[in-house]
Amino acid sequence: xxxxxxxxxxxxxxxxxxxxxxxxxxxxxxxxxxxxxxxxxxxxxxxxxxxxxxxxxxxxxxxxxxxxxxxxxxxxxxxxxxxxxxxxxxxxxxxxxxxxxxxxxxxxxxxxxxxxxxxxxxxxxxxxxxxxxxxxxxxxxxxxxxxxxxxxxxxxxxxxxxxxxxxxxxxxxxxxxxxxxxxxxxxxxxxxxxxxxxxxxxxxxxxxxxxxxxxxxxxxxxxxxxxxxxxxxxxxxxxxxxxxxxxxxxxxxxxxxxxxxxxxxxxxxxxxxxxxxxxxxxxxxxxxxxxxxxxxxxxxxxxxxxxxxxxxxxxxxxxxxxx
Length: 323
What we know:
Keywords: Cell membrane, Iron, Membrane, Transmembrane, Transmembrane helix, Transport. The protein is mainly alpha-helical. The chain has helices at 3-25, 33-38, 46-80, 92-106, 113-130, 138-160, 164-168, 177-196, 198-203, 208-213, 218-240, 246-258, 262-286, 295-312. The two termini are 18 Å apart.
């Protein structure tokens, strides 16, 4: 790791810690730094309940979700060799959201139905996405993905019978410690595997013929990383719903800051994604107190212009490589 990369890692860690402290303090009730230490010895106080039952699980969940979505986006971009490939824009997240909704309606008795049905949705979307000729054309891939996303969003609205706002407004507002524990187990497992498999993503920088010549199992690597990225995105969607653009914004910025080596890129994306999601959620819940803006809406406001600028400046499918 170069000195420059080390500075960027130090910077994102400082941002992460600082934002966590701010997130603990702000909200409908302001809790100052001195009060934060005092409430540790006052478990029966209202501020203690606010911190440990409301804000802390929300903070931890947003960190895990942001890290998972950023790494999922980086993996998708490595496999598809497309800098704006991401589970949210390719319909994976919306498919998982739709199947999760169906599971809540049809199979509410099934243990873990949210995650199981969201996983089925992710697999279905991935199968559709990879079954045709779209993989060979980055433009066609994005068009198919956007169409797939619109289809599943429309189906979600149809099934929800007028409750579309609830379906679309992915938020951390109702996250409990039970949800947070599930996210910790699913998310940290997936992130650990992603870090272990990061050298595989580097292989995909080479042409398939070159990899086959040296005996690298290209198909196995590609599907392993695709399924891992899908798993990470689905784990987030199953708990808080579909959140867009994290997997586009963070990996593309990370390539500019720390380079294209996935052994450096993936851990940095994980940390930066965690920070971005926490910052977006904290801003969303404080900008119009006592109401709040959902995490999905905040990321749409942040990520939409980013993608437009990315493409308008000629750094789209070919001008900005995902490798």
